[in-house]
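tool=predict chain=A
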Amino acid sequence: MEESANTQLRDKTIAHEIYLQRYYSSTSKKVMDLLRETEKDLVRQLKTLDLDNQMTIPQIDARLESVRAILNEGYALAGKELISDMHDAAEYEQEWQIKAVNESTPIVLDMVAVAPVTLFAAVESKPLQGKLIKEWIDKLDQDSYTRIQDAVRMGLVEGQSYNDVVKRITGTKALQYTDGVMALNKRQTQALVSTAMAHATNTASTEYILANQDIFSGVQWVSTLDRKTSNLCKANDGKIISIEEVKKGALLPPAHIRCRSGKVSVLKSWKALGIKNPDGRTRASMDGQVAQTETYQTWLKKKPEAFQDEVLGKARADLYRAGMPLDRFVDDSGHTYTLDELKKKEN
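tool=predict ok
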């Protein structure tokens, strides 16, 4: 029996989400590379400040202004890189959505493409967890400085040497610098970057769907179901959200920081689309039925071994086929895709 257009579209979208995660990782690497240079400048500056525990808090803060300036510049550059990639991701997402629909339907649908400038404006003007992207970047900058400021103040007040205060910020070599303030700053930044990229692609797909509401009846929430999935995303997996609900601002992915959920557009039936005298194939494939919900684990189980190897990495895929449960949406190999690589992979 021929699969419905919605089933085909869901299948394509889940695979697409896997590849997008690798593109998000590529952006994260670029942003973190920029911030690593900032970190080097910051550490060099910290070592020249010659602070001691005889100084008052206002004196300490005055010396730390040079550190604040370095962070401001670093996060400004990182933010510019992130927003640029968000724009690219939004534009590509719409291109992919149009291509996926055309490949999933037996008829040519008259779809409207949203102007890139409109997509970019939506990405930057729609809040992510209550804040605009630029506000999130400013918050990262301020939080990073505040942690450093607090570490210096507390260390000096407690009578630590200034070298120990600097270690409190950078972390120690013995623990691979994972125990310092900067490690927390990095984790917070990486979490935002991946979520911001997901926000960009999901915003773009939402704008595209709303521009073509004569073709789509709504969207279906698709969650990555494993032990890391939030209760919110578990509860929403498979949920159908109508166009009217979307227009009213219904909750859509990403639902929280580090959210790995996505959504699939739901095509209307051939009758609802006003298609007259469809042939048998069109009638079967354009039935308007929504794809049944299934876990990512069961979905991946049906894919060819070559695809499983690509997603998980060969060694991990072998373990998966032997019965190991999935813990993550993508592999642990650290492999990333640039936008050009992503386009080649999906064309």
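The beta strands are 216-222, 240-242, 262-267. Residues 328-333 have pLDDT under 50 and may be disordered.
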